[in-house]
Amino acid sequence: MEHNLLNVSTEGHRASVAVIGLGYIGLPTAAVLASAGANVIGVDINQETVDVINAGRVPFVEPDMATTVAGVVSQGNLRATTETPHAEIYIVAVPTPFTEDKSPDLSYIATAGIQIAPLLKGTELIILESTAPPGATEFLAETILAARPDLTTEPDTSHTVYFAHCPERVLPGRIMIEMRTNDRIIGTLNGNAGERARDLYQLFCTGEFLMTDARTAELSKLTENAYRDVNIAFANELSMIADSLGINVWELITLANHHPRVNILQPGPGVGGHCIAVDPWFIVATAPKQSLLIKTAREVNDSKPEFIVNKLLPQARRIDKVKIAALGLAFKPNIDDLRESSARQIVNHLADELPSASIMVVEPNVEELPAELAKRTNVVLMDRDMAIDAADIVILLVDHNEFVHLEPALLTQKIVHDTRGVWARD
Fold it and tell me: In the annotation, is 375 catalytic?
């Protein structure tokens, strides 16, 4: 059975692509596909997100994305809706969080499948792009076929629905560049789903396409982030060892990295974001007896925010009505993404431990605090210089450009905690 991406029907119309979930991955994917000429419909449960996109604007900060979205919306190549439409191709890019016991929560994937199922006619391609544990693409297929027993995954019939897993591999802050240039892993679940998915991504991606099966593709994305997590955990554990010995960890790492085969990463206040802080737990949940190192690394990185807070608390408690300037709230520099942010955890923990303190958060990439901080009476979002000037203690949590190039004079006579090593390396 032939499937031509841009000429699906006898009328010769462009294939319609529905992107389910317009978050940090779904919206950029929809935008670059639309800019390459595809007819894209974006679906999101948040009406405000839909309205913002249909107005040609973006609901979060990502370099170069606003111009692309404005252009494809004005050209009619991208529109957003809260209602799932029929499409020849579906890309599922919904959240995949974990539960309290660190096991994967596939409820968003299930919901997407249930919404798509009634619309299917047969021959559609469904791509799971959400990062998920091995077997999640099969779970999506099973969810849809349970609702539509008249359909099948057996290839080359008029009732066949095709499934593939194509994990994103982009860095926030560089998404619009890396989405087009990074190599792409394409995992086939049935039939020629992988080839069809490759044809779709070739519209905009210039990287190499690496073909495999769906389970291997799922684990490959988790493996990439678990590898990074283990290496970060080594640096974070080393920072705690160095602290206990009164050694400057930044100097220590610089010296060790002069070995030709050593490249230790830089420690920080923890690991955040929806990839490195989450994905290793999916491996642990899938193979708990075999993933001891991965689990330990995750526990080391998860423990770092508490270590930072415990270092600061004795100094803060010696100052009556202490004022703390917390620089940064995002999970990495120069973006507005607060998901799984260690900085956010630290600010919440400080607010709990120091109810009489004034905690002045400086986050230049957001206009308001997240809900759990906004409701606190001892936490406020402030301008950088005003917060530092008023502070007794300054804690650098995120190395945004605004903080890296800070005038040293601003820190005079302040108690300084530099969790990123921006100033501590001097």
Answer: no
| Same fold yes or no, 16-207 and 224-418 | yes
Could you tell me what percent of the chain has a pLDDT over 90? 90
Task: Give dist(CA 144, CA 116) in Å, integer.
Answer: 8
Phi, psi of 228 (to 5 degrees): -65, -40
Tokens of 192: 């020629």
Query: In angstroms, how far is CA 57 from the centroid of its own chain?
Result: 20
Neighbouring C-beta atoms of residue 149, cutoff 10 Å: 7
**Architecture of the 16-207 domain:** 3-Layer(aba) Sandwich (3.40)
DSSP state of 332: S
Q: Residue 318's CB: how many other CB atoms inside 10 A?
A: 10
- Rounded to whole angstroms, the Cα distance separating 260 from 1 reads 54
Residue 236 contacts by C-beta under 8 Å, 6 or more apart in sequence?
A: 267, 268, 270, 271, 300, 301, 304
pLDDT for the residue 223 = 97
Specify the 3-state DSSP secondary structure of 244.
Answer: helix
Give the span between the Cα atoms of 392 and 128, in whole angstroms. 49
In terms of Cα–Cα distance, which of 235, 234, 199 is closest to 5? Answer: 199
Higher pLDDT, 423 or 298: 298
Residue ranges of the domains in the chain?
A: 16-207, 224-418
User: φ and ψ at 11, to 5 degrees?
Assistant: -75, -10
Distances (CA, A) of 264 to 233, 236, 267, 278, 298: 10, 10, 9, 22, 17
Tens digit of pLDDT for each residue in 4-43? 444 433 345 578 999 999 999 999 999 999 999 999 999 9
- End-to-end C-alpha distance for the chain, whole angstroms: 64
Catalytic residue among 102, 166, 205, 275: 275
Over range 405-423, report the average pLDDT.
Answer: 92
Catalytic residue among 166, 221, 304, 332: 221
Type of residue numbered 412: T
Distance CA(160)–CA(125), nearest Å, equals: 9
Question: Exposed/middle/buried for 203, CB within 10 Å: 0-12, 13-18, 19+?
Answer: middle
Which CATH number is associated with domain 224-418? 3.40.50.720
Residue 356 to residue 323: CA distance in whole angstroms: 9
Name the residue among 178, 92, 78 with its Cα closest to residue 131.
92
Is 221 labeled as catalytic in the residue annotation?
yes
Amino acid letter, residue 213: D
C-alpha 387, offset from chain centre: 29
Phi, psi of 165, rounded to the nearest 5 degrees = -120, 125
Across the chain, mean pLDDT equals: 94
State the Cα–Cα distance between residues 171 and 52, nearest whole angstrom.
23
